[in-house]
Write a structure and sequence with these properties.
Elements: E1 7-14, H1 16-34, E2 38-45, H2 49-57, E3 64-72, E4 87-89, E5 99-107, H3 111-121, E6 127-135, E7 148-152, E8 158-159, E9 175-180
Parallel strand pairs: 2-3, 2-5, 5-6, 6-7
Antiparallel strand pairs: 1-9, 3-4, 8-9
This protein binds inosinic acid.
C-alpha cells in the first residue's frame, strides 16, 4: 500500500452477514457445476484461508471436496513486480485431470492469479475455475478470468475476513477499509 504513515480501521465495507449470503450463492453455483465429482479447492495462503473454510462448509455432500493450499511470496514487491510470483509452498498433490478451484481472497492487479492460473493450467487439470472473494477492477493490470466472484469493491485497502495489513486484522469477521492513523 502507498503512503508512509500507519493505518487504523476506518469503516465496515462488507458485513459478515452479507459475506455469508454471497458465499451461500457461490457454493450453490459450484454444487450445480460439480455435482457427483471430486474437486480440489486450492487456497492461496494466508489471505484465502478464512474464506475457503467458510466456502467449503457451505458446499453440501453432493460434491467430493478436497482441500489443498499454496503460498506465494508477499505482496510487498508487487509495485515493481514483473508478474512473476515466487511459490513458497506448492500444492501437496496434483493428479492430471483433476478438477481444481483456485481460491483467492482478492484480485488487485491480477498478477498473482494470472501467474497461478497459468502454472496450474500447464499441469493439465480436468477443469480449472477461479474463485475470488473481492475484485478491485480499477487496479487491474492483466486480464485474468474469474469464474466465481464475491464482490466488486472500490480501490480501497481492506482488511478483515482473512485480509491483513502488515499481518494485522485477519481475524475480524467483517471487511473494513483502513484509513491513515
Ligand atoms: P495482485 O497480484 O495485485 O492481484 O495481488 C493480490 C494480493 O495482494 C492479495 O492476495 C492480497 O494478499 C494483496 N492485496 C491486494 N489488495 C489488498 C487489500 O486491499 N487488502 C489486503 N491485501 C490486499
Amino acid at each position: 500500500m502507498s503512503g508512509s504513515g500507519d493505518y487504523k480501521l476506518g469503516s465496515i465495507l462488507l458485513k459478515k452477514s452479507e459475506i455469508e449470503r454471497r458465499i451461500a450463492d457461490i457454493a450453490s453455483e459450484i454444487e450445480r457445476e460439480y455435482r457427483g465429482q471430486e474437486v480440489v479447492f486450492t487456497g492461496v495462503l494466508k489471505g484465502a484461508a478464512i474464506f475457503m473454510s467458510d466456502l467449503v462448509r457451505a458446499i453440501g455432500e453432493s460434491v467430493d471436496v478436497r482441500m489443498d493450499f499454496m503460498a506465494v511470496s508477499s505482496y510487498g514487491d508487487a509495485s515493481t513486480s514483473s508478474g512473476v510470483v515466487k511459490i513458497v509452498k506448492d500444492m501437496d498433490t496434483f493428479a492430471e485431470g483433476q478438477n481444481v478451484v483456485l481460491v483467492e481472497d482478492i484480485m488487485d492487479t491480477g498478477l498473482t492469479l494470472s501467474y497461478l492460473q497459468e502454472m496450474i493450467r500447464a499441469r493439465n487439470p480436468g477443469t480449472l475455475r477461479t474463485c475470488v472473494l473481492l475484485e478491485k477492477p480499477d487496479r487491474k493490470k492483466v486480464d485474468c478470468e474469474i469464474d466465481y466472484k464475491g464482490f466488486t469493491i472500490p480501490d480501497k485497502f481492506v482488511v478483515g475476513y482473512g485480509l491483513d495489513y502488515a499481518g494485522k486484522w485477519r481475524h475480524l469477521p467483517d471487511i473494513w477499509c483502513v484509513v491513515e492513523a
